[in-house]
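Ex. 9. Protein: Pyruvate kinase.
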Amino acid sequence: MPSSHLLLEEPIRMVSILEPSKPSFFPAMTKIVGTLGPKSRSVETISGCLKAGMSVARFDFSWHDPEYHQETLENLKVAIKSTKKLCAIMLDTVGAEMQVVNKSEKAISLEANGQVVLTPDQGQEASSEILPINFDGLAKAMKKGDTIFIGQYLFTGSETTSVWLEVSEVKDQDVVCIIKNSATLAGALFTLHASQIHIDLPTLTEKDKEVISTWGVKNKIDFLSLSYTRHAEDVRQAREFLSKSGDISQTQIFAKIENVEGLTHFDEILQEADGIILSRGNLGIDLPPEKVFLFQKSALYKCNMAGKPAVLTRVVDSMTDNLRPTRAEATDVANAVLDGSDAILLGAETLRGLYPVETISTVGRICAEAEKVFNQDLYFKKTVKYVGEPMTHLESIASSAVRAAIKVKASIIICFTSSGRAARLIAKYRPTMPVLSVVIPRLKTNQLKWSFSGAFEARQSLIVRGLFPMLADPRHPAESTSATNESILKVALDHGKALGVIKSHDRVVVCQKLGDASVVKIIELED
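Predicted C-alpha cells for Pyruvate kinase:
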C-alpha cells in the first residue's frame, strides 16, 4: 500500500503564508457533503452552505421525522434556486443502530466507577441507574469485559458528552456496566456502540424501508447512505428494494463502513456498491486507534483503483463549537485529500454545529491547498499500471483524455456523457484541471409517457472529485447528430467562460462520441 507522502509533489512548493487563495467557481476539486439539521436548515444558512462549497445535502434519519426533513428539503430547493448552485440529496438510513431512548429528555449524569444497567424494557425511564435501549438481543451478544460506547446523535469523542462502559455482568436481558468516565448525556437519543460485536439487527430496517418508499421516492433521492453495511448482500438487498420503489431505481447506493465486520468484507462490498463512506466515528471505536489510519489508506486506495467515490467522515469535530479547526484536524483533512478522498462528509459540524457555513468554507480551503501538492503524475502511472492491458475501450479513452489535457496544459476537460460513466472514468485518473461533465439527456418511456433522463446522472457527479456537471438542452438528446454536438459544445464552452475557468487562447480537451467512435480532441480557443 503506497504511503500518502508518495502522492506529494517532490519537492513541495512552499507557498507564501501571505499568498491569497485564488477565488474560483470551483473552490476545490474535493466535494463536501453537509448534514442539514437544527443549525443548518434555514434558507439563509443553506444558501451560505451552497456558496461555501456544499454540493451534497445529507438527511440523517437517525433522528427526527420525515415531515421535519421535508421542511428542510423545501428550504434547500429555495436556496438552490436563489444561488443557482446544484446540490444532490443523500438519505442516510438508521440501519443496525442501537439507541438509548430518553423519552423525558432530561439530562443524565453518569459518574466514573459507578454502575448503570442497559435494559431492553423501554417502559423504564432513563436515569443515572438505568438506560432503556431499542434492542432486546444485547445481553446475548455481550460478555464480561466487553466495551460499550454511548454518545449523543453522532459520536463527538468528547469525554463530557460521551461515555465508555465496561460490562461487569449479564442478568437475563439486562447488561450491567461499570462507568469508565464521568459524563452528562443530554437530549432524547443517544447512539450505543458495542466494540467488535455482531449485532443481529437488519441493515435495512422496516423503518428505513418506509422512509425510502415514501420520503425517498417523493424526493427522488440521488444517494442512499446504507448505514452499518456489513456484507455485499446488504447492498444487493437494498438495490433490489430500490428497484421496486418507483422512480428511484437509479439512486446510487453508498455503503457506509462503520465496524470491523464491514472492513472484513470490504472488497466484496466495494464490488456491489456505487461508492463507499468510511464512518470514522464508529470505526474509531471498533478499531484500535493505531489501526484507523491504515484501514483508511487501504480503503481509499481500493476505491480509487475501482473508480468509485470514497467519502470520509469526522474530520473537524472541534468546529462544532469553534470557528477554527485544531492543527491536527486541518492536517487530517489535507491527508484525506492526498490519500484519495472524493468527498469530505460533515456531520455534527453542520447538523448542530455553531458555524456550519464557516466549517464548509474552511474545509474547502484546506482541500484546495492539498490538491496543489497532489502528485498527479505518480497517481496516473500507478492507476494505469493497476488497470493493466488491454484496457477497455472507455478506460483507454478516459486515460488518454487526461494525459492529453496535462500535456497541453488544458484549462478544462469537457466530457459528453449520457450515463455519466465516461466522465467518472476521466475523474478516476485525477486530472489537475476540472472536468465539465455535459450530460446529454436520453429520451425514455415507461409505456405510459415519454420523459428525459439526465438530471439524476448530472447530480450524482456532485460527489465525485474534480467532476462538475452541466445538463444539456433536452431538445438535443443523446442520439443526435454531430452538428448538434457542436452546438452543445459551444454552450459548454460559453458556460466555462461565464464561470471564469476558460479564457481566450486556453486549450480545452473534449471527449465525445461521434457515431460508434469515441473521440478525444484538443481545441485552442480564439479571442
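Check your answer against this statement. Residues 497 and 503 are 6 Å apart (CA to CA).
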